[in-house]
Amino acid sequence: MSEDYGTNFADISSRFKLESGANAVIARYYHHPRSSCRYVFADTINQYIFTSSDCGKTVKGRKVQVRNAEYLFFGEKTYFLWYSTI
User: Looking at the predicted structure, is the pLDDT value of residue 2 above 90?
Assistant: First the structure.
């Protein structure tokens, strides 16, 4: 994760864990168009999404039942919608 437009990077991969303790496989990520610190990360293999509203300092994971999905942010808050693209 970079907070300075790619000059420096912090490895935050340890924050993406499944319930089993295994590492997630992040296939896609989405950032909020009005807030550079709000993200949704998608593990499409294990059907997990991870969210952060503080530039990746804390990450919350949850299992979802959608394998092929798109994510859409709306509003100024952390609201987002995921929907199947099948």
Answer: no
